[in-house]
Each structure stands twice: as structure tokens, then as C-alpha cells.
Write a structure and sequence with these properties.
The chain is of the alpha+beta class. It has one domain. It is built from five helices and three strands, in the order H-H-H-E-E-E-H-H. A three-stranded antiparallel sheet has the order 1-2-3. A hairpin with an 8-residue loop joins strand 2 and strand 3. It is globular.
């Protein structure tokens, strides 16, 4: 994997944590300004002010949305599963579609949702270490 490819995948992985549901219009399309806000608010709770050290900067969000469309978004489910289908705006893209899937928000989420949490915690920490 090239450095450029790794950077693109890292950016898409980061974007997968945005809650794009608020940007969805009744017809299923997405509002650009609301998508930008969702990217900027990654890592923030609704009632928290914007922290410039988390989420995308305004410039990053604009640049990302100039390169990618959000085709569909499944917001967090009870299991913490979430998925976003991105499509490159580059007409020459080898693989124009990227599906970003995530399930675990945090270790605390794992401990809360899985029985025998301590065992799961130990297994996760062993894999991370």
C-alpha cells in the first residue's frame, strides 16, 4: 500500500465516525453544509462546543467533501454498528466505492454490551498491546 493510499484510507476511517444522519434530506440525499458540520463534530457530544483539536477542520471537511460523496449512511445501532458508503468523485478512480464499517466506539462500550466484560477487556488489551 502506498503512502497516498494509506493516507486516503486513514481519512476515510476517520470520516466513518461522523454522524451523517442529521445531514440526510427527506429524499435520501445529503446536505453539503450538514455533512461538513458532521465531519467537524467528530468526537463531540451534541451539547459540547466545537473543540479545534478534534474532528475535521473546516478546510479538511471542505477538501474531503470535494473528493468524496456520501452515498448512504447507517447511523449507530444498539450494537454500535455503523456503516457509511463513500464514492470517489474522481472519474478515473480504480475503486470508486469504499464501504467503511465500524462497531466498537470504545472499550467502555465493549464492557457494557458484552457479557463477561472483564474477559473481553483482557482479550482486547492483549491484542492492542
Amino acid at each position: 500500500m502506498s503512502m497516498l493510499s494509506a493516507a486516503v484510507h486513514a481519512e476515510l476511517a476517520d470520516a466513518s465516525y461522523a454522524d451523517f444522519e442529521e445531514a440526510r434530506r427527506p429524499d435520501g440525499s445529503f446536505d453539503f453544509d450538514d455533512l461538513k458540520t458532521a465531519l467537524e463534530r467528530i468526537g463531540h457530544k451534541e451539547d459540547e462546543p466545537k473543540d479545534p483539536n478534534t474532528g475535521f477542520s473546516s478546510f479538511q471537511a471542505d477538501a474531503f467533501l470535494q473528493r468524496w460523496d456520501i452515498i448512504n449512511h447507517q447511523p449507530d445501532m444498539e450494537s454500535a454498528f455503523s456503516a457509511t458508503l463513500f464514492k470517489s468523485k474522481d472519474p478515473n478512480a480504480e475503486q470508486p466505492y469504499v464501504l467503511a464499517v465500524r462497531q466498537i466506539k470504545s472499550l467502555a462500550h465493549v464492557l457494557y454490551h458484552f457479557p463477561g466484560g472483564r474477559v473481553v477487556e483482557t482479550q482486547i488489551l492483549e491484542r492492542v498491546a
